[in-house]
Amino acid sequence: MPVELRRARPPDADFLVELVTDDDVRPFLGPRTATTREGVLEEIERSLAEPESFGRFVVELDGEPAGTVGFRVSSEPNRIARLEKLAVHPRFRGRRLADEAARLFQRLLLEELDFHRIELEIYAFNERACAHAERSGFVREGQKRKAYRKDGEWVDSVLYAIVADDLED
Fold first, then answer.
1. β-pair type (80-88, 117-123)
2. pTM above 0.85?
3. 88 within 8 A of 102, measured Cβ to Cβ
4. Which has the closest alpha carbon to 57: 3, 114, 127, 128?
5. Is residue 15 assigned to a domain?
6. Can you tell me the distance from the alpha carbon of 119 to that of 159, in angstroms, rounded to the nearest whole number?
7. Closest Cα partner for 82 from 121, 49, 110?
8. Residue 61: enclosing H or E segment and its boundaries?
9. Does the chain have fewer CB atoms within 10 Å around its N or its C terminus?
10. Within a domain: residue 67?
11. pLDDT tens digit sequence for 126-154
């Protein structure tokens, strides 16, 4: 199963909007997720203009768009990136595609873009995403209690990170 990552381009906007607005995906994404074509295009343009500090990528399976992942710099002096918006289209689920995409993304950020650390924060109720993070090599670092308001309730989040020393050979 050849999984590849590539930077999103303007023709990907419709696929990305469909993905992030899907009823099975949207509840697990943060409130700042761009959900309109215009918002997604702005993110794609920023990714192309600022490739070292912001990225929106398409996950492809056998050349077909299957998901997305992104990052933003959270600390420039410390070379820390924050992984965000990892999502797989429902029709591609059950193949561990997200695990492979996360591993590729880790190597891209840590080895090619020379980040020191990648951080990831997941709603604690998203047990499937927490299991994915651990399977793909992220180390659980803690939990933020009642950190975010989601659908009218305060929910916890789980913090994960990975550094180059954690990568599997």
1. parallel
2. yes
3. no
4. 3
5. yes
6. 7
7. 121
8. strand 54-61
9. C
10. yes
11. 999 999 999 999 999 999 999 999 889 99
Total structural domains in the chain?
1
The answer to the question of residue 155 being in a domain is no
Q: Which domain does 81 fall in, by range?
A: 3-120
Residue holding tokens 């992220």?
138
Q: In angstroms, rounded to a whole number, what is the distance separating the alpha carbons of residues 101 and 97? A: 6
CB 71 within 8 A of CB 55: yes
Query: Is residue 132 included in any domain, yes or no?
Result: no
Q: What pLDDT was estimated at residue 28?
A: 84
Q: Which helix (H) or strand (E) holds 4?
A: strand 3-7
Query: In 3D, which of 169, 105, 117, 108 has the Cα closest to residue 141?
Result: 117
Confidence check: pLDDT of 169 > 70 = no
Structure-block tokens of residue 20: 């992030």
